[in-house]
Amino acid sequence: MIDAQTKQQLLSLATDFPRVWNDPCVEPRERKRILRLLIEDVTLINGEMIQAHVRLRGGATRTLTLTKPLPIAQIRKTKPEVVAEIDGLLDHYCDREVAEVLNRQGRRTWQGESFNLKKIAHIREAFKLKSRYSRLRAKGLLTAKEMSVRHGVTFTTINAWGREGLLQKHHYDNVRRCLYEPLDENAILKGQGGRAAKQPILTSAQAGQGAV
């Protein structure tokens, strides 16, 4: 039998325990020592829920039921709605621009970080999403070299017309490389060499740039 004074000290210790445990001055190793003094053993049962049967030094037992944490692979997996949004954005933007759109919307990765070019490229490859370049090629857009061959003008002329906004061009990566919408066969009036040289001109200029 314990006397009243000892009983009061024990009750005070139990009351002070949360304060001592949560004191930032208490080091982790000291917390481990406290647990060894209080707990005899713990039995874990892993099922749909995790059950922890705790036996204390004095013989009392406690049972704790815990929700199982998600597997780390599932935690790190990009949410389906974010993947779907990235897929839709790639119809209009390159990887860098997709990251900028998501960041403006307040979207974050599973780690709570902002999106960037590399993260979007990783998600796109992991979920086998078509790149911006592949989507533009599927629509029939051409490189500057292909445009020059198709329309019989120089590569330099195509790039110049693109800079001037005379051709519809669509950027597909972070270094601003682009593909062009092809013109009608008779859209370019060929130039001529010689002393009275004439530069090729567009007979029906498609002014303005397309969406990047």
Average pLDDT number: 81
Helix proportion:
40-55%
How many strand units? 7
SSE run: HHEEEHHHHHHHEEEE
Number of helices: 9
Oligomer: single chain
Instruction: Report the sheet-strand fraction.
Output: 15-25%
Poorly predicted runs are: 192-197, 205-212
State the distance separating the first and last CA atoms. 83 Å
Strand order of the largest sheet: 1-2-3
Largest beta-sheet details: 3 strands, antiparallel
Structural classification: alpha+beta
Give the domain tally.
3
> What overall form do the CA principal axes indicate?
rod-shaped
What radius of gyration results from the CA coordinates? 34 Å
Please describe the structure with a list of short key phrases separated by commas or semicolons:
single chain; 212 residues; alpha+beta; 3 domains; three-stranded antiparallel β-sheet; two-stranded antiparallel sheet; 42% helix
What would you say this structure looks like, in words?
With 212 residues, the chain is α+β, with helices and mostly antiparallel strands. It folds into three domains: 38-67, no CATH class; 73-129; 137-202, no CATH class. It is 42% helix and 16% strand. The protein has helices at residues 4-21, 28-38, 72-75, 80-89, 95-104, 117-126, 132-138, 144-151, 155-164; strands at residues 39-46, 49-56, 61-67, 169-171, 178-180, 188-189, 201-202. The strands form three sheets. It has a three-stranded antiparallel beta sheet. A two-stranded antiparallel sheet has the order 4-5. A hairpin with a 2-residue loop joins strand 1 and strand 2 (49-56). Helix 8 crosses helix 9. The longest helix is centred in the N-terminal third of the chain and has 18 residues, at 4-21. Mean pLDDT is 81; it is low at 192-197 and 205-212.
